[in-house]
Amino acid sequence: ETPELETEVGHHDDGHDHGHVEVEDLEIVDRSDDEVVADVHDDHWHGELPHIHVDDNVSLGAVFTDDHGDEIPIGSNEEYALAVSVADDAEGGIVEIDSDEHWHGDHVHIYGESEGETEVVFKLWHDDHADWESPPIEVEVEDH
User: Fold this and answer.
1) Cβ-proximal residues to 144 (8 Å cutoff; 6+ apart), any chain
2) Which of 1, 20, 25, 88 has the most CB atoms around its CB within 10 Å?
3) Cβ atoms within 10 A of the Cβ of 1, count?
């Protein structure tokens, strides 16, 4: 009797690692003074984002650290980029965010539209999707 052969169908290795990176830590940097203003661990934030004035913006950079303690390179010429969006169910019309064709890769701009508070989510962007998303963090817009 001939033994059964087991085959795996549909596996294709194109030489690219499509595994998602594990983000252990994210630090948000206020680029106006190069200071870390907020950092996330697991599901909660420490610190806060700078307040934004109506008709002004804040420029934020980020340092992503993986589960091995290594910094994940981000930028327009890197595999990953920093992205930000208004959180689901958060108040709209408070801030405006650059559309993806205007992303810088290593930093984001959040523009103050009208006075109030809303929440944003930072993302580790890979090609056309987020490999990782932060918990929402509050951002406040002031009219002075």
Assistant:
1) 53, 54
2) 25
3) 3
List the domains of the chain with CATH numbers.
23-142 (2.60.40.1080)
Residue 23: how many CA atoms within 13 Å on its side-chain side? 26
Phi and psi torsions of 45, nearest 5°? -100, 150
pLDDT-derived band at 16 (thresholds 50, 70, 90) equals very low
8 A C-beta contact, residue 37 and residue 47? yes
What pLDDT shows up at residue 14? 40
> For strand 23-30 and strand 44-47, is the pairing parallel, antiparallel, or unpaired?
unpaired
The pLDDT of residue 98 is: 79
Per-residue pLDDT tens for 31-71?
999 999 999 987 899 999 999 999 999 999 999 999 999 99
